[in-house]
């Protein structure tokens, strides 16, 4: 049986101007994002069009999709005989105080989440309903039992990382007839989101926000956004997006990427710490931007493509190139305990599955030149997922499989001016046997006049509205199908224009 989903796309590209000031999650102004319509589902890391593209490309034997799919099918987590191991309380981190010890068991959670995600993704590519059934069984087992994420301060990492990942796994099977959707939504809000929100507001019982490195914020921001989208909660989405732009913690974009250089790069804050956490940060910020993009919110392009410049910096450094570094303590009005004085050593052999998603957005969707991203994405391909990058938790910080999931054809410019059109739609077909996903249709929302162009969904694989987007995003030249970014004439700190 073939099940068809109709996916609506909102085209709400926002101006990249930045308001001043840092805010906590509970005190933000309401941004005009995703206004006036239902959220698109599937619409976290993967849309219906994305899933249809993966299936079609693999079926056609197209490279590099087949290599990416081979990585998926070879992973032990992607097998339909996976048996879940749910826990009532998940512990991460050890308290050193007397009588405050507990067994760390969070490995059971991240292994099961990755098994659910990989089986769900494999189902959408192959059409084998056994994989969908396995994913649903894993997720239902956890939503029936899990009541709390606990531990030392590391509990915030667990809530953030595994919260956004759980939402993404569930999003791929949310329409399966056996999936307990409302129960899973309740678990996301009560168990994961509540901890993430508390961290973004209070940073562990009132600890000054700059105490924590950016990834602590970024994973909890990802959990907050994923939960809001998965639960169709407009307020949660708006607050997460506003925190990305102006949050008090180190994960907001101008804190995570504090120095914009005059060579098209921007310093990644954790580059003074180590390479592994910087790679993790690129993956988390990319995840946040991708989930927002699939709901019509362009954070990839925010503040003159600041994330692109930061990702290019990490890519060049990780490839063995020299990058400048301004010690964090020397930046204007930046309190905190981070004290590195120079960029950390980088090993070109160290890889995480974070590059395909970011690179394909900027170079294929948007047609921008990104030399270092292109080089490192090619080096990292084909990307695997949880279980392919070591047995410890760091190997499970990203869901991965970007070569399969995010490889795209280059967008082309077909006209000098964008032609008005209805919101883009895409259909995804999947084979099943009655136990497969139920059809769900998201409402259509049109682009506001202030977007700067008409028609063409932001989330589409390619785009015919590149010229209109260029005008809206402040790009100054279009030539040969490539968009060229403005360059600043000076080093820019803290988002100063």
Description:
There is one protein chain. This protein has 497 residues and is mostly helical. The chain is 42% helix and 6% strand. It has a 3-stranded antiparallel beta sheet with strand order 5-4-9. Helix 5 runs antiparallel to helix 6. The radius of gyration is 21 Å and the shape is globular. The N terminus and C terminus are likely disordered.
Number of helices in the DSSP assignment: 15
Total DSSP E strands: 9
Largest sheet: 3 strands, antiparallel
String of helices and strands: EHHEHHEHHHHHEEHHHHHEHEEE
Terminus-to-terminus distance:
55 Å
Low-confidence stretches: 1-36, 413-497
Strand order within the widest beta sheet: 5-4-9
**Rounded radius of gyration (Å):** 21 Å
Mean pLDDT comes to 79
Apparent shape: globular
Structural class: mainly alpha
Short description:
The protein has 497 residues and is mostly helical.
């Amino acid at each position: 049986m073939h099940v068809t989903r109709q996916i609506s796309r909102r085209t709400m590209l926002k101006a990249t101007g930045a308001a001043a000031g840092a805010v906590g999650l509970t005190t933000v102004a309401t941004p005009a994002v995703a206004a006036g319509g239902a959220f698109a589902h599937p619409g976290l890391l993967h849309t219906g069009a994305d899933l249809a593209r993966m299936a079609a490309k693999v079926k056609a034997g197209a490279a590099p999709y087949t290599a990416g799919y081979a990585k998926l099918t070879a992973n032990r987590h992607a097998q339909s005989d996976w048996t879940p191991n749910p826990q009532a309380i998940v512990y991460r981190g050890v308290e050193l105080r007397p009588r405050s010890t507990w067994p760390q068991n969070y490995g059971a959670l991240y292994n099961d989440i990755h098994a659910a995600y990989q089986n769900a993704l494999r189902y959408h590519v192959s059409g084998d309903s056994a994989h969908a059934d396995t994913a649903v069984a894993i997720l239902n087992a956890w939503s029936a039992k899990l009541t709390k994420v606990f531990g030392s301060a590391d509990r915030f990492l667990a809530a953030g990382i595994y919260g956004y990942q759980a939402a993404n796994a569930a999003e791929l099977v949310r329409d399966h007839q056996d999936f307990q959707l409302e129960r899973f939504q309740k678990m996301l809000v009560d168990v994961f989101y509540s901890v993430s929100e508390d961290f973004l507001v209070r940073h562990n019982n009132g600890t000054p926000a700059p105490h924590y490195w950016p990834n602590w914020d970024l994973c909890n921001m990802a959990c907050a956004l994923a939960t809001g989208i998965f639960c169709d909660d407009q307020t949660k989405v708006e607050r997460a997006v506003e925190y990305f732009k102006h949050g008090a913690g180190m994960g907001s974009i101008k804190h995570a990427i504090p120095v914009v250089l005059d060579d098209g790069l921007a310093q990644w804050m954790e580059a003074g710490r180590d390479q592994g956490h910087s790679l993790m940060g690129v993956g988390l910020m990319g995840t946040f931007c991708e989930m927002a993009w699939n709901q019509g919110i362009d954070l990839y392009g925010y503040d003159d493509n600041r994330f692109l410049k930061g990702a290019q910096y990490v890519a060049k450094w990780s490839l063995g190139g020299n990058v400048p570094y301004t010690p964090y303590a020397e930046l204007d009005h930046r309190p905190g305990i981070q004290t590195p004085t120079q960029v950390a050593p980088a090993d070109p052999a160290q890889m995480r599955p974070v590059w395909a998603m970011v690179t394909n957005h900027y170079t294929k969707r948007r047609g921008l030149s990104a030399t270092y991203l292109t080089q490192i994405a090619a080096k990292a391909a084909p990307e695997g997922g949880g279980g392919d990058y070591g047995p410890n938790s760091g190997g499970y910080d990203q869901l991965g499989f970007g070569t399969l999931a995010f490889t795209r054809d280059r967008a082309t410019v077909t006209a000098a001016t964008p032609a008005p059109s209805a919101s883009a739609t895409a259909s995804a077909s999947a084979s099943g046997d009655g136990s497969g996903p139920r059809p769900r249709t998201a409402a259509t929302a049109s682009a506001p006049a202030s977007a700067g162009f008409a028609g063409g969904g932001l989330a589409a694989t390619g785009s015919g509205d590149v010229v209109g987007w260029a005008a809206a995003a402040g790009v100054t030249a279009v030539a040969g199908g490539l968009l060229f970014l403005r360059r600043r004439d000076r080093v820019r700190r803290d988002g100063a224009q």
